[in-house]
Design goal:
With 213 residues, the chain is α/β, with parallel strands linked by helices. The protein has nine helices and eight strands. Bound molecules: cytidine-5'-diphosphate (CDP). The site of cytidine-5'-diphosphate has 17 residues, from helix 2, helix 4 and helix 8.
């Protein structure tokens, strides 16, 4: 069985997908983490999003893997590094690049081909797994999503103001939803859940009720 969960930044996709995967004993695939890992590697090597040749070269020599709940970039766990705010700020500019997306989608489909999966991202229901049995589209107001991301960042000691976080989230949503290839959008047939006023348990309950049906 395949479950696709899409939605904008901070809509709760990853928290919720991870918990559902645990409950159902499904494999959880965080596709955003993969785009973040590529962004981390590019930035560490000072390769800008417009340097296509260098990026293509880099991909030939890149390995991304999930093991025991961790993401490995070229054999090294990068769970923490990919959540830094500089990655939040730059990831969308790498994620618009078509050859990067095709490279990712190939890996994502391979992982999903032989097990029960819940996969979250922007284009899962619409492009990566169009035949998924269940598709969800999580949303929440930009203010609420900004507050969630702000809490996460300040808990890690990052000094930033809320207005800036909300602004960055809006910018990223704009880039993600207006890109030409596989943009962020609600897939046909996806069940939309507005999480603005729902807690995590509420969203999980709603999703599980569809799964059980
Ligand atoms: O956790 P958050 O919602 O902030 O973002 P994420 O799911 O980790 O995704 C980070 C970024 O990766 C997104 O803003 C997109 O630019 C890109 N992404 C994408 O283009 N397609 C996906 N399937 C997943 C992420």
């Amino acid at each position: 069985m395949q479950i696709a969960v899409d939605g904008p930044a901070g809509s709760g996709k990853s928290t919720i997908s991870k918990m559902i995967a645990n409950q159902l004993k499904f494999e959880y695939i965080d596709t955003g983490a993969m785009y973040r890992a590529i962004t981390l590697k590019s930035m560490n090597q000072d390769i800008r999003p417009e340097e296509y040749d260098k990026l293509e070269q880099m991909l030939h020599d890149t390995d991304i893997d999930f093991k025991d709940g961790h993401i490995y970039l070229d054999g090294i766990a990068v769970d923490e590094a990919i959540r830094e705010n500089k990655i939040n700020q730059n990831v969308s500019n790498y994620a618009v690049i078509k050859f990067i997306r095709l490279w990712m989608v190939d890996i994502q489909r391979k992982i999903a081909s032989n097990k029960d999966v819940i996969m979250d991202g922007r284009d899962i229901g619409s492009y990566v797994l169009p035949k998924a049995e269940l598709k969800f589209f999580l949303t929440a107001s930009a203010e609420e999503r900004g507050k969630r991301r702000y809490k996460e960042l300040t808990a890690k000691g990052v000094e930033i103001d809320l207005a800036q976080v909300i602004d960055e989230i809006k910018k990223r949503d704009h880039i993600d939803s207006t890109r030409e290839f596989a943009p962020l959008k609600r897939a046909e047939g996806a069940i939309e859940i507005d999480t603005t006023f729902l807690d995590i348990e509420g969203v999980i309950e709603a999703i599980l009720s569809y799964v059980n049906r």
